[in-house]
Design brief:
This protein is α/β, with parallel strands linked by helices. 20% of the residues lie in helices and 32% in strands. It has one domain: Dihydrofolate Reductase, subunit A (3-Layer(aba) Sandwich). Bound molecules: NADP nicotinamide-adenine-dinucleotide phosphate.
């Protein structure tokens, strides 16, 4: 079973502003789509609201304290961390990828064994930040420098880390 995190952060760990992503970076959207395809994605109710629909070709899990939050019929609503871990355990052939936001990353901090991070080398004002992780327990597996072009204006790097075995 793999519990992964996938996120993009700018300088000072900014990940969100006013319920949305602070940047427009289509190459990162494409990377997100490629990595999460056919996998299980887990998100907080606010992140789901900002996306506004279930992500196609993926099992979508939305965490909420509400009994019946407004979500698409295909979405699995869960209410507790343990419910997600049990589901992930029952589907070991897929990666369970936590896609945010900050509240949900905090919730799974001790469970995560793999990190997909996009580092955007630009400054944005924001109101949501990536929680601190214990980076000493992770090793970088790969890194790919993104291409700056007419559609992707900021320098960015895709990275993947694996939790060191203990
Ligand atoms: N840059 C990135 O990679 C990235 C990724 C994802 C999101 N974001 C950004 O981050 C922001 C949203 O993040 P956020 O931290 O405000 O919200 P969030 O984590 O997406 O969602 C928070 C909601 O999740 C539910 N929740 C939280 N803890 C829970 C628990 N223990 N059990 C059950 N449900 C729980 C609650 O829903 P209820 O209120 O329904 O109870 C809570 O309001 C947006 O700006 C978004 O664009 C950025």
């Amino acid at each position: 079973m793999t519990i992964a995190f996938m996120w993009a952060e700018a300088k000072d760990h900014v990940i969100g502003a006013a319920g949305q992503l602070p940047w427009h970076l289509p190459a990162d959207m494409q990377h997100f789509k490629t990595v999460t395809q056919q996998q299980i994605v887990v998100m907080g109710r606010r992140t789901y609201a900002s996306i506004g629909k279930a992500l196609p070709n993926r099992t979508n899990i939305v965490l909420s304290h509400q009994a019946k939050p407004t979500v698409a019929p295909s979405v699995l609503v869960m209410h507790q961390r343990q419910e997600v871990l049990t589901y992930a355990h029952a589907h070991p052939q897929q990666e369970t990828i936590v896609i945010g936001g900050a509240q949900i990353f905090s919730l799974f901090k001790t469970d995560v064994t793999k990190l997909y991070v996009t580092r955007i080398h630009a400054k944005f004002s924001g109101d949501t930040y990536m929680p601190a992780l214990d980076w000493t327990t992770f090793t970088r597996q790969w890194q790919q420098v993104g291409q700056v072009d007419e559609k992707n204006h900021y320098p960015y790097v895709f990275e993947c880390y694996q939790r060191k075995s203990i």
